[in-house]
Specification:
276 residues, mainly beta, 53% strand, globular, single chain
Length: 276
């Protein structure tokens, strides 16, 4: 395999990591967020205003593992783990960890992405986010502290161990319901999603507050390891990338799919631990 191909595969792992970024308009058309009110003209609904699912859908110990494939080739894994409930910045919070890394490719092209989000127990809103990325010699660390109407963003990156560190800091004005790249999954999981509705929510990514749009449709019944045959909902972007959630109170992400120039990318849920 060429280094260029392996580099592309590492980008795919990152792509899945941050949607899990398939929920952002990957063509670069995501717009700055300036409000979270419903847009009746375009029939858009602020996701934060949608009703919460009444039953709890997150528990300490929950672990979801995804196998990531390019075509039929397995190129990596992603694992999301609710580690513990703990006090954080004066609030009770769930500590959630997500890790994505290359599989057998790691011997030739090492890639690892590690994320943490701290969600307050009452509303599962983000309090703090950390992201650590290692792509061969390149490293980056991102931290975000959320407050009522602003967020402190910091990124420290280094091209290689011998190069000088670059530090970026921003104080961002944020609308109600602003998410980070990991908490957004739990926002989707806690809300009642109505098929035929287009939702939007603000997201901090790369030091900017973006407005993410997605449409909910009814999905097919599929067989999922550990769950059996389940009905699904499909969350779709304007680019056609799709996320399948179980059509029940848990809204477990079971599949992610996107078309890229080099082929179809798919992440399937392959292992489940401690799901209600």
């Amino acid at each position: 395999m060429s280094v260029a191909y392996l580099r592309c595969c590492s980008r795919i792992i990152l792509f899945i990591t941050v949607l899990f970024l398939i929920l952002i308009d990957v063509s670069g058309n995501a717009q700055p967020a300036n409000n979270t009110s419903a847009n009746t003209k375009n029939r858009e609904v602020a996701l934060v205003d949608e009703k919460d699912i009444s039953a709890p859908h997150i528990r300490v110990g929950e672990k979801l593992t995804y196998n990531i494939k390019l075509g039929w080739v397995s190129i990596g894994k992603r694992t999301d783990h609710v580690i513990e409930k703990m006090p954080f910045n004066g609030q009770q919070a769930y500590k959630v960890r997500s890790e994505a890394r290359t599989s057998s490719l790691a011997k030739v092209y090492s890639f690892r992405n590690l994320q943490y989000t701290y969600l307050n127990v009452d509303g599962l809103n983000p309090i703090h986010f950390r992201n650590q990325l290692k792509d061969r010699k390149y490293t980056a660390k991102v931290g975000i502290d959320f407050r009522d109407d602003e967020a402190e963003y910091q990124k420290i990156s280094q091209l290689n161990p011998k190069s000088k560190e670059k530090t970026e800091k921003e104080t961002l004005e944020i609308p109600t319901g602003t998410q980070d790249e990991l908490s957004m999954i739990y926002l989707l999981r806690r809300k009642q999603l109505v098929p035929g509705t287009t939702y939007f929510f603000p997201l901090i990514s790369k030091g900017k507050v973006l407005k993410v749009r997605l449409q909910v449709k009814r999905g097919e019944t599929m067989k999922v390891k550990g769950l059996g045959r389940i009905r699904t909902l499909v969350v779709q972007t304007s680019e056609g990338s799709r996320l399948w959630l179980t059509d029940d109170r848990r809204h477990i992400p079971v599949r992610i799919e996107a078309e890229m120039k080099i082929g179809k990318i798919r992440a399937n849920l392959s292992n489940i631990e401690h799901i209600r």
